[in-house]
Amino acid sequence: MKRVAIIFLLSLFMGLSCVYSYSEIIDRIVAVVNEEVITLTDVRIGEVFGLYSGEIEEEGGDPRSQVLERLIDQKVVIQLSGKDVLIKREELDGFLLQIAQKLGADEVERRLMQFGLSQQDLRDYIREMIKYKGIISQIFSRVNPVSLKEMEDYYQEVYVPAQKEKNVEPKPMMEILDEIETSVNQEKTKSQIEDWVRNLREESDIQIRGTAQDAVVVHRSCAVTK
Prior knowledge:
This protein is mainly α. It has two domains: about 30-140, no CATH class; about 145-205. Helix content is about 65%, strand content about 10%. It is built from nine helices and five strands. The chain has helices spanning about 1-15, 40-50, 55-60, 65-80, 90-105, 105-115, 120-140, 150-165, 175-205; strands at about 20-25, 30-35, 35-40, 205-210, 215-220. The strands form two sheets. A three-stranded antiparallel β-sheet has the order 3-2-4. It has a two-stranded antiparallel sheet with strand order 1-5. Helix 2 crosses helix 4 and helix 5 (about 90-105) packs across helix 7. Residues about 1-25 and about 215-225 have low confidence and may be disordered.
């Protein structure tokens, strides 16, 4: 009788141990920027917490690859610009609040647990992103002069077609000169930033290893054979 009971308990234990399946996160290096490593987990954290969602939505393409590109840009700018930025606690708190409002507090906690992160860990990712943007702002804060020819070209080639596409009558150019000047200046600044970052990347030792889309979660489970 004891023998039967022991066999039954062992069978029950083995059955229960095989009910559960688990996921093991396998991390790897996806890029090295001047000897500084970017892991696939770094990329996924940037993706799932939406740290670069605005830029990615504008550019389109594969989100994970776009996050990797943003991380590489951050590294080269912080490493080579020679600039530093004082980041206030309020800035970090404000960005964390934006994430919580967008995803929901419970979902943020769930995603932190998924990666084994604390809020402080997430703050470190946010801090680097804010530092990058702060350096960009320092260097490109000067307003670019905009010529009348540039404004006329923007009006005819960008503004008018955009309004017609919306079935809206374009306003006369003289009524929106300030708006046009601001838009042209923003485009010129954006182009200057892209050229500057591109040059920094060319000066850097950047190694891309594999693709950012590769899966990193391996599901393991056990099965009972009868």
